[in-house]
Amino acid sequence: MRVYELAKKLNLRSNQLLKTISKLGIKSKSNLSSLSLEEVKKIKELVYQKPSSKKREKICPRDPVITLLGHVDHGKTSLLDAIRKTRVAQQEIGGITQHIGASEIKFQGKRIVFIDTPGHEAFSAMRAQGAQVTDIVILVIAADDGIMPQTVEAINHARAAKVPILVAINKIDKKEANVERVKKQLTKYDLTPEEWGGETICVEVSALTRQGINELLEMVLLEAEMLELKADPEGELEAVVIEAEIDRKKGPLSTLLVKKGTLRRGDIIAGKTTYGKVRSLINWKGEMLKEAGPSTPVRVLGLSSIGTPGEIFKRVSSEKEARLSVEKFIEKGREKTPRRETNLEILLGKKEEKKERVLNVIIKTDTQGSLKALLDVLKNFEKKGQKINIIHGGVGEIKKSDIFLAAASKSLIIGFNAGISPENNDLAKKERVEIRRYRIIYEVVENIERILQGFVEPELEEVLVGKARVREIFKIPQVGIIAGAYVEEGRIVKGNRVKIIREEKIIGEGSIGSLKHFQKDVKEVISGLECGIKIKGFTEIKKEDIIEAYETKQK
Ligand code: GDP
Question: pLDDT band at 209, cuts 50/70/90?
């Protein structure tokens, strides 16, 4: 039999058959009459073998999932609305659209999924849990306003997540719009527009007039095509919580985005802390679905509790198995696992592992000037085998979004005269994010040097224990200046080290010299009470200042 004849019999193309033959180690022959029956059988097996799941994954394209990020009021919500309105005909929706935290549109016959603008903090919080839901970030910049602090933050969050950025220059209908200025600003952030010789796609749009929306979507599809997104609908299920709320009537409602496999009604699924049998699946148009494949956001009813954004769900065989796995996880969380490594050691990686030590840092400072100074110093900080990688730098208090970004990108947070709320301090501990706060640039440099050298330093740690707001200042002869304050959080203890915060900046330090509750000297005042504080080492205290109290503890 000749090759083409056998190929025809096996319903293959000749070159496919030849490939299979050579795979089996049989020298390709144009005449196959010398093949043994055994060999023909093997060829048949190989040809009709179901492709492995890895192979199938390679051949199943997946639709892109998009997130819009940007500065407040630059038009993220309006743009998403305009996209939906342009692409989804009213009659197609039929019922009432559901707020499930995500939506889908069709453009040029292709599906595109949009996650409702989550804010940078939610974006990185999901990533801190190991879930990457976004394939492409659309960075929205208002043409009349240009790049603003949260734009920079968005750029850095997207970069840390290694998600490609597509720029939408919005509000071009406004007469104050200045597209060229935005493009020029973009070059400073390594986002040089394509038309200026860079690689960043910029689309000029108006959410108001809907100009440029189609072009934006075209670019989304183009970018998605280049990413070659794949997922196997028949593979193991992986679905991520993107939104969760409790409905008084329906109970816990969670929106899951299916990443891999297919989620079906009746499935039993388990995450880290939540499990349940899927009672119903509802898409954003309010339609009941039987199943949801890769890149489909669905509201799921039937879970035991809402789950947390970023929590990853898998399919399990029984409710019992699900319950056991969740209980085991919760139990594990209760046990205090002995900490072998410090956070910094984790940040730096094992010495032997990498030739070059790279320390990722996030910098928050009191002023633009000090930010620039610090960035200049740290950027040039490159010594033999040591490098600093600046993930983000901004002005203001250390916020939740900074902590999640640090957790997701394994960064050290450097606070330079920058405050932090006790709540965020706790969050940092929970997320095991290391924060170092300084007041002098010299200290930063010295400390970073030591960190990089592997002296994982202070065994002592300053822990924020309370916060009081100054309501009145009393000048008492022979005693000095007393701050009449109200303890807003935690407790203030005599002897505590304190930092004085004014307008989110540290303006001084000292310690609690004396503490009075009404006329009585006390050792401690707890939240909800007023007190008189005399600060040792600082006399410039003013009304509305915040006194942060710290205790020093062994780490
Ligand atoms: P977000 O905070 O980024 O979600 O911004 P919004 O979508 O809430 O928009 C902020 C404001 O800008 C709203 O008053 C919008 O009406 C307005 N806005 C958004 N897009 C456009 C636009 O393309 N042109 C004009 N003129 N105004 C817009």
Answer: very high
More confident residue, 335 or 105: 105
What is the reported pLDDT for 295?
95
Nearest CA to ligand 1 atom 18: 75
With 80 as the cut, is the pLDDT of residue 524 above it?
yes
Of 98, 131, 105, 103, the residue nearest 117 (C-alpha): 103
278: pLDDT strictly greater than 90: yes
Backbone angles phi, psi at 148, to 5 degrees: -120, 170
Q: Give the dihedral of Cα atoms 321, 323, 328, 333; nearest 10 deg.
A: 150
> Residue 231 C-alpha to ligand 1 middle, in angstroms?
35
What letter would DSSP give residue 174?
Answer: S
Among protein residues, the one with the nearest Cα to ligand 1's atom 16 is: 78
> Distances from the Cα of 31 to the Cαs of 14, 15, 18, in angstroms?
12, 14, 11
Query: Amino acid letter at 288?
Result: M
Residue 237 — very low, low, confident or very high, per pLDDT cuts 50/70/90? very high
- Average of per-residue pLDDT values in the chain: 84
Strand order in the sheet with 110-115: 102-107, 110-115, 65-70, 136-142, 165-170, 202-204
Q: Name the band, by pLDDT with cuts 50, 70 and 90, for residue 444.
A: confident
Domains with residue ranges and CATH for the chain:
3-48 (no CATH), 60-231 (3.40.50.300), 238-334 (2.40.30.10), 343-453 (3.40.50.10050), 460-554 (2.40.30.10)
> For residues 320 and 44, what is the distance between their CA atoms, to the nearest angstrom?
43
Confidence of residue 308 (pLDDT cuts 50, 70, 90): confident
What angle do helix axes 37-48 and 14-23 make, rounded to 10 degrees?
A: 110
Residue to mutate (ligand 1; options 73, 115, 179; most atoms within 8 A of CB):
73
Q: Give the pLDDT of residue 383.
A: 64
Strand order in the sheet with 357-365: 382-383, 386-395, 357-365, 411-416, 435-438
* Tens digit of each residue's pLDDT (9 = 90 or more) over 23-59: 777 765 556 667 777 777 777 776 666 555 555 555 6
| Residue type (1 letter), 157 | H
Report yes or no: 324 and 276 within 8 Å, Cβ to Cβ.
Answer: no
CB 214 within 8 Å of CB 206:
no
**What tokens does 471 get?**
């309501």
Q: Ligand 1 pocket: which residues have CB below 6 Å?
A: 70, 72-78, 117, 170-171, 173-174, 206-208
- Selection from 103, 102, 105, 62 nearest residue 225 by Cα: 62
Atom of ligand 1 nearest to the CA of 72: 2
Does 122 have pLDDT greater than 50?
A: yes
SS3 content of the chain, % helix, strand, coil (to 5): 30, 35, 35
